[in-house]
Amino acid sequence: MLCFGRTDDNIDQNRALYIFYSSVVVLEFILGLLLNITVIHLFVFKLKFWKSKTIDIFLFNLVLADILLLIGLPVKAYNFQQCSEQKVVCKVQLFLQFLNRGASIAFLTVISIYRYFSVVHPGKRKVLRILRLSPQISVFIWVLLGILTIPAMLQSFFRCNSSEKDEQISPIILLREIVFFTQIFIPFFVLVYCSIRIIRRLKQKSVGDKTKLRRAMFLVTSVVFVFAVCFLPYAITRAVQLHINGLVMKEEKVTVVKLYDGLVCLSYLNCLLDPILYCLSSSKFKKLYISMYLPFLLEKEQPEIACNCILIHFE
Q1: What are the angstrom distances between the C-alpha of 223 and each of 88, 106, 229?
Q2: Domain harbouring 111, CATH code
Q3: Which residues form the signal peptide (predicted)?
């Protein structure tokens, strides 16, 4: 964040931009928290996810990661408005951001892999039995990500104070960057591959029901689209920033960091869009959600829900 440590004119110009960023973050926090809390309420008190199918446990952990990520957004918005941040708070926030965003991406990827084997390779029972160990897999993901995210606490992703010098490459920084790019680009390619194979398989299995096929294809591709919009731009911008470090004028570096901060705000949309995808992807979940929180839409939506043609479990 580059709102401070510069001339008064630059401060005023940057402050207006970062106040806008702050407003976006606040809006995402309010809408995202409301949606995710209602979703997790259904998982815990209505669906009793621990007794449900494998994918429900993964979905619950995905929602939990989104909520934990959203909790830190008020601090992010406050820092944007004040154009300053305490170093300790900055590092803690970055740790939680990387941990929960990484968990969100990891569970999204595991869900896609589970759907892939359930639809494309249903005969591979050994793999499916392993994937059905969802509680153990969930604990492993959280512990592994916690360990891999420690470098974010030791040295911040971006300078937590504008007066600090550019970082010198060290084993900790190198590990941090490898983890960051690995947890975004590898899952993206996995999602793309799984989605393509699932769509091909659905086309082969679909007989006459074009509406069902189109909806299933839309839901599968929506996950990839949301991932690409939310995570790829800011990851690419980070790569650009690393590439130009020390090679361009200070003003150009400032522009790249401003762009990065804006794309980070965009990445939080994932927490807002995930619950919407849940409602679209399961007829059972959609009916329950509408009956609990939007009963005035129930009569209108009932015929569509009754068709039971939206896929999420693929079982």
Answers
A1: 35, 13, 10
A2: 1.20.1070.10
A3: none
Percent of the chain with pLDDT over 90: 29
Q: Write out the residue range of the structural domain in which residue 81 sits.
A: 8-306
Give yes or no for residue 212 having a pLDDT over 90.
Answer: no
Residue 311 lies in a domain: no
* CA distance linking residue 126 with residue 123, whole number of Å: 9
H/E/C letters for each residue in the chain? CCCCCCCHHHHHHHHHHHHHHHHHHHHHHHHHHHHHHHHHHHHHHHCCHHHCCHHHHHHHHHHHHHHHHHHCHHHHHHHHHHCCCCHHHHHHHHHHHHHHHHHHHHHHHHHHHHHHHHHCCCCCHHHHHHHCCHHHHHHHHHHHHHHHCHHHHHCCCCCCCCCCCCCCCCHHHHHHHHHHHHHHHHHHHHHHHHHHHHHHHHHHHCCCCHHHHHHHHHHHHHHHHHHHHHHHHHHHHHHHHHHHCCCCCHHHHHHHHHHHHHHHHHHCHHHHHHHHHHHHHCHHHHHHHHHHHCHHHHHHHHHHHHCCCCCCCCC
Sign of CA dihedral 103, 105, 106, 111: positive
Overall domain count for the chain: 1
Q: At what angle do helices 210-244 and 87-119 cross, to 10 degrees?
A: 140
Residue 20 lies in a domain: yes
pLDDT, average across residues 123-144: 89
Whole-angstrom distance, CA of residue 301 vs CA of residue 280 = 12
315 assigned to some structural domain: no
Cα–Cα distance for residue pair 172/42, rounded to 1 Å: 41
Is 120 inside any structural domain? yes
What integer best gives the mean pLDDT of the chain? 79
